[in-house]
């Protein structure tokens, strides 16, 4: 009697959740940012409440050599993030390729499903800059570079405990492992669903007009760049501190006359604390962003990314971080756009 396929993909279950946690530990040790992925009960709870979607690749022997995790990490149900694609680093090259191929096929199917049935308009992937394989996979799956988050993760987090093949092949002269001090940066890869995204109308700040237009050419979304209207009244914003990443997020939800002063007050506040990275999320609409962008630029903030969805629509993300805190970037691994953005922000 012939045996069935060596590997297959299935949703995580009570029988496989512990193996998912074990694989995260095997790859990252205890440095992974989201600690709930070390707890089988938490994995299942997040799967049930819809926060995560987790698929496992199982072997005929009951092993779990691969995990695919998707998550709704941004404040909109229209955006799905590819959290992790993990392959057991102890597999040989042939087995690793089989597992990866199965997971990428399942991922493609799932992305079509969420676009057609769950209202998802945008898929987001954050890739550690030195990971060649994940960046290459993103390009092959139709993702575009939307920007780069400098110093997104403290250096001690997300360190590969047992490096999968191709992840540890860093460029000559680039430091890896314990000697690679500094905060780790993430390339932002974006795949919008063009047929699911309605017309977007927005003005663009002069300073970033060229790069925003360039990125939107890649996104190929139906959009119209319109003249800016003057901000009136009071603006609104929210702040969030991500203690795991020592990062603050200032999200402007409505641009008002007072927005430039408001974002600078928040920046001064965080500069007094133990926050290394501050990100500013600014809505792209018809309202003039020029004063806020110029105020932040004068204070040292730089361009980070353009996302076609965030909460209620497209946004410009700016970032401010001391370049001395950022780990060296492997320039020949980055896409040309990511390298240009990083060079301008350093």
Secondary structure elements and pairings:
Blueprint: E1 7-11, H1 17-28, H2 40-49, E2 52-59, E3 66-71, E4 79-87, H3 93-117, E5 122-128, H4 132-140, E6 144-153, E7 184-192, E8 200-202, H5 209-219, E9 223-225, E10 236-242, E11 247-254, H6 259-271, E12 277-283, H7 290-298, E13 302-307, E14 315-320, H8 336-345
Parallel strand pairs: 4-5, 8-9, 11-12
Antiparallel strand pairs: 1-2, 2-3, 3-4, 5-7, 6-7, 10-11, 12-14, 13-14
Helix pairs in contact: 1-2, 6-7
Write structural notes for this entry.
There is one protein chain. By secondary structure, the chain is an alpha+beta fold. It folds into two domains: 183 residues, Gcn5-related N-acetyltransferase (GNAT) (Aminopeptidase, 3-Layer(aba) Sandwich); 151 residues, Aminopeptidase (3-Layer(aba) Sandwich), CATH 3.40.630. Helices cover 29% and strands 27% of the residues. It contains eight helices and 14 strands. It has a seven-stranded mixed beta sheet, sandwiched between helices. A five-stranded mixed beta sheet has the order 10-11-12-14-13. Strand 2 and strand 3 form a beta hairpin. About 4% of the residues have low confidence.
How many domains in all? 2
- Helix-and-strand structural type: alpha+beta
Any guess at the CATH architecture of the largest domain? 3-Layer(aba) Sandwich
Largest sheet, in brief, is: 7 strands, mixed
The low-confidence runs, each spanning 5 or more residues with pLDDT under 50, are: 165-179
What global shape is seen?
Answer: globular
């Amino acid at each position: 009697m012939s045996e069935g396929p060596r590997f297959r993909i299935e949703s995580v279950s009570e029988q496989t959740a512990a193996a998912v946690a074990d694989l995260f530990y095997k790859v990252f040790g205890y440095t992974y940012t989201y600690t709930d992925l070390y707890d089988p009960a938490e994995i299942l709870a997040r799967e049930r409440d819809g926060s995560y979607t987790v698929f496992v690749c199982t072997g005929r022997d009951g092993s779990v050599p691969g995990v695919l995790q998707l998550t709704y990490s941004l404040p909109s149900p229209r955006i799905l993030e590819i959290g992790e694609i993990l392959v057991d680093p102890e597999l040989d090259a042939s087995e690793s390729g089989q597992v990866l191929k199965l997971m990428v096929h399942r991922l493609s199917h799932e992305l079509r499903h969420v676009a057609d049935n769950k209202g998802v308009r945008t898929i987001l992937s954050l890739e550690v800059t030195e990971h060649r394989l994940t960046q290459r996979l993103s390009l092959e799956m139709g993702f575009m570079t939307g920007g780069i988050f400098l110093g997104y993760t403290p250096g001690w987090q997300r360190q590969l405990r047992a490096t999968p093949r191709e992840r540890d092949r860093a460029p000559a002269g680039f430091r890896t492992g314990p000697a690679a001090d500094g905060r780790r940066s993430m390339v932002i890869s974006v795949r919008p669903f063009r047929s699911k995204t309605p017309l977007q109308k927005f003005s663009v700040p002069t300073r970033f007009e060229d790069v925003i237009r360039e990125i939107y050419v890649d996104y190929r979304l139906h959009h119209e760049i319109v003249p800016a209207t003057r901000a009136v009244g009071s603006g609104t914003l929210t702040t969030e501190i991500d203690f795991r990443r020592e990062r603050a997020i200032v999200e402007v939800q409505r641009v008002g006359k007072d927005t430039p002063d408001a974002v600078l007050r928040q920046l001064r506040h965080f500069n007094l604390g133990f926050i290394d990275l501050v990100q500013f999320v600014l809505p792209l609409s018809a309202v003039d962003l020029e004063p806020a962008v110029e105020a932040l630029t004068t204070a040292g903030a730089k361009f980070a990314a353009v996302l076609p969805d965030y909460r209620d629509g497209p946004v410009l993300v700016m970032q401010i971080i001391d370049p001395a805190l950022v780990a060296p970037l492997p320039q020949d691994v980055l896409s040309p756009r990511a390298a240009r953005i990083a060079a301008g922000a350093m």
